[in-house]
Amino acid sequence: MTGPAPVARVTLHRVALPLLRPHLAAHGREDRREVVLVEVTDAEGVAGWGECPTLARPGYAPEWTDGAWWVLRRMLVPALLEGRGVGVVGHPMASGAVRDALLDLRLRRAGEGPAALLGPLADRVAFGVAVGFTADVEATARAAADAVAAGAALVVLKVRPGWCAAPVAAVRRALPDLLVAVDGNGSFDATTLGELQRAAEEGLAFVEQPMAPGDHDGARRAVARLDVPVALDEAVAAPADLDAAVALGTGSMLTVKPSRLGGVEAAAAASARAAAAGWAVHAGGMLESGVGRAAARALAGRPEVAGPALAGPTALLFADDVVDPVPAGADGTVPVPAGPGLAPPPDPDRLRALTVASWTRDAGPRTPR
Asked: Full-prediction pTM beyond 0.70?
């Protein structure tokens, strides 16, 4: 792969993706999915794309979309165009979007796909679907059945204290052979851990982020008491977090997402690091557009990433997307991007229709230092 090309222009596209249904989890509710797409263009007009899939409010993570929009315009893009590098402490998703756009540009210029960056990848991966809170457990079971009918091999149920064992039991009754996991988004503690134990007795593939990030004692207690793998997501935002989790025994599995860890390269390094420590690795999702989801599927194609990835067709999430739909195969798998580039570029008409704000900055002459 060739070295980085000078960036002549950066355009930020803030797009609103129409959710088929509101997404509810312990950290909040998303009624309208806004993400920021980063487009970097070189002097020859070749463009690379990255995605910042922050949520509307800082609940799941400290970053949120309005904040990322500000940081990208006021700090990250000017730093990139002035040759000062990319990276702002506390903003891995915004920084990762710029890094992924630059990687996409490099791969596209070289006519190569993600394998040139990430190593040998599977051609296709099985996919799973996250199911948020619903009105009742029967609705949860129906949502899980709809996911299976669409080809999903895994359903991850969003849970919280008071909404845990019952929805798992309902899905188990309706779909006894389905691979089921739960995601607490850090909402449990020592007083409610018993609810997760009862859910695990129904048969779970893993329990994701049961305790709040930083609750190391609670996380160790969960690992000891739950007879299933405990996956960490919010608790691992940097390599040092993963090293600490391994040393402290606060998990046994990593949910890896390109955006959460500062881009696909950093996420690949984290997945390799986790596997070397004896942890399982699961590819998660962030309700991304097709741009970010393609990068997630590329990561899911790595050999150490096991099980169905939460990187299925975006048609299961949105009424429309910025890229052409990627359908699931008859075998319940989706393709790993082959290139060129890290992800498919948006369709211009779709992008125009879904954009709610845009911002462009051209590179100017650099002042010698």
From this structure: yes
